[in-house]
Specification:
By secondary structure, the protein is an alpha/beta fold. The protein has helices at residues 105-119, 131-142, 160-174, 177-188, 191-194, 196-208, 228-238, 267-277, 291-294, 296-307, and strands at residues 4-5, 35-41, 44-51, 56-60, 83-87, 124-129, 147-153, 226-227, 255-260, 280-284. An 8-stranded mixed beta sheet has the order 2-3-5-4-6-7-9-10, with helices on both faces. The protein has a two-stranded antiparallel sheet with strand order 1-8.
């Protein structure tokens, strides 16, 4: 497990008082999934889950190196009028691979194209969250005729310097004194031995607080892990990337971008990406990086309305 880290996700700096997470929130409970299966593509096994009925929408999770689990039950709101196709990307979640198996961005794009062929779909409707939004753009640039519609939720920046800005902002929030004090209090308590499951839950919640406008909402996010090796390999393979000069190539694809105003990923980067794509845009007030938790009704209405039935 030393190779795994909590996901790095983003919101605006809350006051120290707002770090109180003692108020109970409903535990996340993803709906049962009947459509669980394994897909063999490009020499790896990818775990897939289908939720709902209707026209398929492929949901791309964040990370890189995470799994689809933490998008549920929030994203399940979109399954009332369509079928959501989740899969754990190469190297993350249940799609584990040996350390020598490459997991860079080109492999991730190639896996999605191989899945499209396996599914027998001429075109894909893609809904990408965080890193998954950037993966959707990378796939569309490589296979523009294979994408019918793009929904980008809290997308990772489409150029490297904006990502650097995100990392700086995340570090500032992560090091806030009130948050550090809560982490130290948990670590030095006897909770690790008296209730290991609750200890792990609290540590997870405090690791993702910087992504939320209201820190208490971290309790409503389904816990997950990120495989550090995969995360590092994907970003290293992208290098000093900048997709802005090419985004106009995708203007023929209907696209919608939704982003929280208090996301640690600067909303300015999402606005710029939307403008270059000719996309419609929804800015979500009082919301960080996780709109399906902090603004579930608006998220479902905006993204569901764009995707159609």
């Amino acid at each position: 497990m030393a190779d795994q880290l909590p996901l790095n996700i983003p919101g605006s700096p809350p006051t120290q008082r707002e770090f109180d997470m003692s108020d109970p929130l409903p535990a996340p409970t993803p709906a049962p999934s009947a459509g669980e299966m394994w897909r063999e593509v490009n020499g790896v096994s990818l775990f897939e889950v289908r939720v709902g009925r209707g026209n398929p929408v492929v949901v791309l999770h964040g990370g890189p190196g995470a799994s689809h689990d933490y998008l549920r039950p929030g994203f399940d709101r979109l399954a009332s009028d369509r079928q959501l196709v989740f899969y754990d990307q190469r190297g993350g979640g249940r799609s584990t691979v040996a350390r020598e198996v490459p997991c860079d961005w080109r492999e991730q794009v190639a896996d999605l194209e191989a899945l499209r062929v396996l599914w027998g779909q001429t075109q894909l409707t893609l809904c990408g969250y965080s890193w998954g939004g950037l993966l959707a753009l990378l796939y569309a640039l490589e296979h523009p005729t294979r994408v019918s519609r793009l929904a980008l939720v809290s997308p990772a920046p489409s150029w490297r310097t904006a990502r650097d800005d995100f990392e700086r902002r995340f570090a500032e929030r992560n090091l806030e004194k009130g948050l550090q004090a809560q982490r130290e209090s948990i670590r030095t308590s006897d909770l690790r031995t008296t209730n290991p499951a609750l200890f792990a839950q609290r540590i997870f919640e405090l690791s993702v607080v910087p992504y939320f406008y209201r820190p208490a909402n971290a309790r409503a996010l389904t816990p997950f892990r990120v495989v550090g090796r995969v995360q590092q390999e994907v970003w290293a393979s992208l290098g000093i990337y900048d997709l802005r000069d090419r985004l106009a190539e995708l203007k023929g694809i209907p696209t919608h971008v939704l982003h929280g105003e208090d996301d640690v990923i600067p909303i300015e980067s999402a606005r710029a990406t939307a403008s270059l794509l000719g996309a419609s845009f929804t800015a979500v007030q009082h919301c960080g990086h996780v709109p399906f938790v902090e603004a579930p009704e608006l998220f479902a209405a905006a993204i569901g309305g764009f995707l159609g039935a």
